[in-house]
Write a structure and sequence with these properties.
The protein is an alpha+beta fold and 203 residues long. The chain has helices spanning 20-25, 28-36, 40-52, 58-75, 80-96, 103-127, 140-146, 172-175, 194-199, and strands spanning 3-5, 156-161, 166-170, 184-186. The protein is built from nine helices and four strands; from the N terminus they run E-H-H-H-H-H-H-H-E-E-H-E-H. A four-stranded antiparallel β-sheet has the order 1-2-3-4, covered by helices on one side. A hairpin with a 4-residue loop joins strand 2 and strand 3. Helix 3 packs antiparallel against helix 4 (58-75), helix 4 (58-75) packs antiparallel against helix 5 and helix 5 packs antiparallel against helix 6. The radius of gyration is 18 Å and the shape is elongated. It starts with a strand and ends with a helix. InterPro entries: DUF309, TTHA0068_sf. It comes from Sesamum angustifolium. This is DUF309 domain-containing protein.
Length: 203
């Protein structure tokens, strides 16, 4: 797979808005657009406003997507442990919805794949140094080694391939002289709309 490098910075701003009128104007379609354009911080704000006024089962779904947005915000701000925690909790809420098909089910599968990708690459990062590579397994020691390893380091960035598909790429500098491409995975895209969300009210 050949990539053209395309990195980005997540725009941050201070505090959360308490403007009730702005909250009322927030829509799920707006949240989807923000998520898919990777403005995860603003996406969080919109989803939080929707979550505050939602009823079950929509409330659980919105909360799950919100936590996924927070997870990606953490990931690209070098808080890898926080990313795994938020994505994991978000995935649990998505699975709680028991989707068997449709855009939310596809989103759930993509989030699950990314979470596994981050976990495996974090294990690799924690286990391997210039002096030593420790075999990782499911033991308590392995999880202790994982811990907050790599916190503050820029281990992941985005690249776009020739078909304009965006991928999360892990630690590419490590693979530069090895003749192999760095691990990568397609970044999740939410293909849902306000109509898909409204359908939940009739389940």
């Amino acid at each position: 797979m050949k990539f053209s490098v395309h990195s980005y910075r997540i725009t941050t701003r201070g505090g959360f808005d308490d403007d009730e009128e702005e909250d009322e104007s927030c829509s799920f379609d707006e949240a989807v657009l923000l998520f898919n354009t990777r403005d995860y911080y603003k996406c969080h704000d919109v989803l939080e406003a929707l979550w505050n006024r939602s009823q079950e089962p929509t409330r659980t779904l919105v909360h799950g997507i919100l936590q996924c947005a927070v997870g990606f915000h953490h990931l690209f701000n070098q808080n890898h442990k926080g990313a795994m925690m938020e994505l994991g909790e978000g995935l649990c809420k998505l699975r709680k919805m028991n989707f068997e098909s449709g855009p939310f089910h596809q989103f759930e599968k993509e989030i699950s794949a990314v979470l596994e990708f981050i976990y495996q690459t974090q294990l690799e990062q924690a286990a391997c140094t210039e002096e030593l590579c420790i075999a990782m397994d499911q033991s308590e020691r392995s999880y202790q080694l994982l811990g907050g390893y790599g916190a503050g380091e820029r281990l992941y960035h985005l690249e776009i391939d020739r078909s304009w598909t965006t991928y999360i790429v892990f630690c590419p500098e490590r693979y530069g002289g090895m003749g192999t491409e760095p691990p990568s995975i397609k970044i999740p895209v939410l293909q849902a709309s306000e109509e898909h969300m409204m359908e939940l009210e009739y389940l």
